[in-house]
Amino acid sequence: MANLLQSFLIWQGQLDLRARRADFYYDLGMTLDDKIPLFTTLRKYEARARQRKQISAPLYLHILKRMQSGSLSEALKGVAADSELIMLDAVQASGDAALSSGLKFLSSTVEKIDHLKAIARKAVVYPVVMIIVFYGMLYGFAAHVVPVLSNILPPEKWPFLGKLLYATSTTIQSYGHYIFAGFVATALLFVYSLPRWTGAVRRRLDPYPPWVLYRDFSGAMLIVSLSTLMRSGVSLRSSLERALRYSSPWLAWHIREILTRLSRPNSSTFGEAFQTGVVNQYLEDRIQDAAERRNPVEAFVKIGVGSIDRLAASIEASASKLNSALLVICGLILGLMMGGFFATAMELQSGIAQQNSQISK
User: Fold this and answer.
1) pLDDT digits (tens, 9 = 90+) for 190-230
2) Nearest 5°: phi and psi at 77?
3) Is 209 left (phi over 0), alpha (psi -120 to 50) or beta?
């Protein structure tokens, strides 16, 4: 029970530190500039948090214990993103000066990356919420409106749009729970498959929504990680090999293919090696251009630093297309439903008028 409680407290501390890790990286970098050992700084943070009874105290103790037998990148698992761990793993072996520079660089890019993640999350959550709300409207219409109409006028006397509405409502009432469960299962399977599914079919689907959102984000994060490592003096091949340690199966699949292409004797530039579908066409062209420059490493680093804002705009554009398509589909379905409702209501009104005229005669 004590271990379970300790794990929960560490998890809470990770959430807290993850939200403010930009300041955490900057403070660590500044203390290294002042020749203060990293272990000393973290021990001071732990003592301060314990004295103030903050939720981060167990986490700092956990980080200190892991640093005794490992490295900063291993100790910060659960706090830092995979792309950040890749960079920390590389620069910490180059001494305190390189680690300080790397930490301060991470601090300047973390906020942009978090903003990018928020955009990507919004791009996924918005259509899901839209579908759930629209399904709730359909179910409410089928369960409460259509039965009232069918009690007044038999469905076989309804107009064509009304019969279509009745068939849709009957299907929702009979199989609505199964449809919703199938949608949830499909959504969960899709999310699960995004970082894991590889192969020729996945490569063909990646340029299209919704897979393109994951492709653009993961690919750009790879370029940012590689450019950060190369900025610290690590070669491209070594950077790719380090990236493999913290990559998802989908990203690792692309990295292995890039490494294979780099090993080919007829490969003239590294730009051709990145044409695996891991990034969008725009980044492919920029990487190819960088490979042909006089200083390709410096040009590649500039791509990584400057790609975050452009990627945010790209993801927003892709999400906008997906949301527009969903709005059109939902609008068409809603229009058919309302058309069926009003056509049936008019048929019902006409029938009532005929009955009244017969009674008056």
Assistant:
1) 989 999 999 999 999 998 877 888 888 888 888 877 877 77
2) -60, 130
3) beta
pLDDT above 90 (res 88): no
Rounded CA-CA distance 13/357 in Å is 77
Round to whole Å and give the CA distance between 80 and 46: 18
Burial of 186 (0-12, 13-18, 19+ CB in 10 A): exposed
Q: Secondary structure of the chain: what % helix, strand, coil (to 5)? A: 85, 0, 15
Identify the helix (H) or strand (E) that includes residue 90: helix 82-91
Distance in angstroms (rounded) separating the CA atoms of residues 251 and 198: 9
pTM: 0.72
- Triad 119, 122, 126: Cα angle to 5°: 150
Non-local (6+) Cβ contacts of 199 within 8 A are: none
Q: ω before 154 within 30° of 0 (cis)?
A: no
